[in-house]
Amino acid sequence: MKGFKKVLAMLLAVAMVAAMVMGCSGGGGDAEEEKTEEKTEAEAPTEEEGGSEEVLKGGGSNIIYIITPSVSNPAFKAEADTATAKAKELGYEVKAASHDDDPTKQTELFDSAIADKAAAIICDNAGADATVEAVKKARDAGIPTFLIDREINAEGVAISQIVANNYQGAKAIAEKFVEAMGEKGKYVELLGKESDTNAGVRSSAFHEVVDQYPDMEMVAQQTANWEKTEAYDKMEAMLQANPDIEGVMCGNDTMLEGVCAALQAAGKKLPVIGVDGSDEAAALIKSGDATGTALQQFAVIAETAVVQADKYLKEGSTGAEEKQLIDCIAITSENVDKLSGFVFTE
Amino acid sequence: MAAKQNSGNNKLAMTILKGRTFIVLIILLIFFSITADNFMSAGALLTVAKHVALYGILAIGMTYVIITGGIDLSVGSVAGLAGMIAGGLIQEGLTLKMFGVTLYFSVPMIVLITVLLGALMGMINGLVITKFNVAPFIATLGTMYIWRGFANIRSNGATFSELAGSEGLGNTGFEVFGRNLAGTAIPCGVLILALIAVAAGLVLKKTPFGWHVLSIGGNEKASKLSGIKVDRVKIWVYAFSGFCSAVVGIIATSQLVSATPKTGESWEMNAIAASVLGGTSMAGGVGTIGGTIVGAFVIGVINDGMTMCGVTEFWQKIIRGLVIIIAVIIDQVQRNLQAKMALQARNENK
Question: Are residues A98 and B85, on separate chains, in Cβ contact within 8 Å?
Fold first, then answer.
């Protein structure tokens, strides 16, 4: 028993050290910044050396791997389906897989693609930092990666990073929100997952527009982690606290669905906006339950990536910058009929 | 004569049943080598082994826990928190506010601190379960949320991405755990899996501690009456599970060269599945490390094989679920057969 207590005491000591790690980490801010600065300077030249000039030939097979988050989300389904269709049309064999937003699983899928000698990888990634290593590994194996929808925190590793212009899209739909609110009134905002950069970008774009109107007042701001059920619960709670809410801004359409359901349950119809452009949101806009959404053209983004992959494999260049922004379209009751399956037909 | 024939058949059936997971593994390997072009290559199989290492190591700790009749749902969260602790120590060091200094540890020190903390987290599970008499499912469900919460708090939900370390601080080299052994094609994780598996297997089979673990799962009351310190054994078992989880956290973080608080979400399910596939009984008292490793490989081969076959996400889930249920059904059949054979043997002796 004595030995046991000794070990326990030691472990507790370690625990205390850990508690300090947790508690005090905030203090080292300045030192950290300096460190990062040094690092960026040191890294810059290596990137140029390793440069994207060398052309990746692909792993040798005719297979394109399409790796996305779970296709239970219609946006990613549209993305995976369009990419698959386009790649097949261009004569490739396609293997589509989902990483469920788990970076480790994503690494495993990249490993599989490398083992399978994939020609190219199209990926909607599972984390801006956690993806870099996987893309590098593919690059080392001669496989070019084309990132869609979400960027990574490194340049010169992937061949293309094609994403929706979240900032422009959120601003465009925020204009419609202000219009629907009559430029005044109390509103609430539901944020996406805080660790996701898009959540921050969309929210600040919303506010860049809305905060110009002094009569618009935000009475609550909560995160619902992009989720429908969570948005429903949070909305009900916020309605309890502020029964006089006159509008809701949501970071995505899934949360918009939850909000509209909560409003219906409370017998209310208010201006509600989202971002994404899902069919569910389109239906709510048609029925008048929601005001609008910013369509991220997932299908266009996915198709562009496949076309660029094909061009790159054949010609050694995509002919475009690595980072590319695809504009969003503000969808309201006026143009909602042209939207279906994330495709906007003029 | 008829009886003898019968018992001969039973024996053959038993042999097949006992090696069932292994047989399934062979069948899967053959199946995928036919359906997926590049599956049967050394590279692809090593890739599978590398992926298996992660939940294989979790499953070893889990097997010990399940053998004692418990369950550890917190393994994925411990892995996540361990990764964040290791990542934080590399990127930010340890700031001691009262002295105004920031300490940076070498990588071996960081690994040591992390696995000890992992063991401590496991030990807390054990203490809550034994000293406060909380059901293991509930206790570890609770800590699963708690550790995940801490993992997020550590970085406020963000990712530690500067894990390469720097020469000046003397903390480079963290990425070795996720890479291949220098000069070989063998992933480091696979070696760690092998080491832990051999050690855990030997301890379970050859040492008094291992016998106590098995005995507690078989009959806790009898074990207590025969003088086994049940609570202590259990606490160590949970500590071991925590240790294994922390090791996995380090390997996973090292592979990504970045620590995210999401690491290990829902991995406990893979670990439990591997244990059960390997013949560990959820009722406790029965299980082997060898079986668990084979079980982990079955899951790994299914996962990677289906991806390389181009099976879609939703079907993958269905197939995984079916494999687990079928494995447990066969387990029951084996147990019934075993009981029948024991009865038969007794009758024949009479």
Answer: no
Average pLDDT along chain A: 86
With 70 as the cut, is the pLDDT of residue A13 above it? no
Q: Which CATH architecture has domain A166-296+333-340?
A: 3-Layer(aba) Sandwich (3.40)
* pLDDT tens per residue across span A239-289: 999 999 999 999 999 999 999 999 999 999 999 999 999 889 999 999 999
Please report the number of interchain residue pairs, chain A to chain B, with beta-carbon separation below 8 angstroms: 147
Which CATH architecture is the domain A63-158 placed in?
A: 3-Layer(aba) Sandwich (3.40)
Retrieve residue A9's tokens.
């005491």
The answer to whether B210 and B237 have CB atoms below 8 angstroms apart is no
Cβ distance A118 to B37 under 8 Å?
Answer: no
CB A298 within 8 A of CB A78: yes
The interface predicted TM-score of the complex, written ipTM, equals 0.80
Query: Burial letters for B30-65: b for 16+ Cβ neighbours within 10 Å, e otherwise?
Result: eebbeebbbbeeeebbbbbbbbbbbbbbbbbbbbbb
Cβ neighbors of B287 (< 8 A, separation 6 or more) are B63, B66, B67, B217, B275, B278, B279, B280, B281
pLDDT band at residue A40 under the 50/70/90 scheme = very low
Bridge partner list, A250: A190
pLDDT in tens, B122-178: 999 999 999 999 999 999 999 999 999 999 999 887 888 888 888 888 888 898 898
Parent domain of B287: 37-339
User: For testing the chain A interface, which of B45, B78, B85, B120 should be mutated: the one with the most A CBs within 10 Å?
Assistant: B120
Instruction: Work out the burial of residue B349: count CB atoms within 10 Å of its CB; fewer than 13 is exposed, 13-18 middle, 19 or more buried.
Output: exposed
Half-sphere exposure of B246 (CA within 13 A, CB side): 23
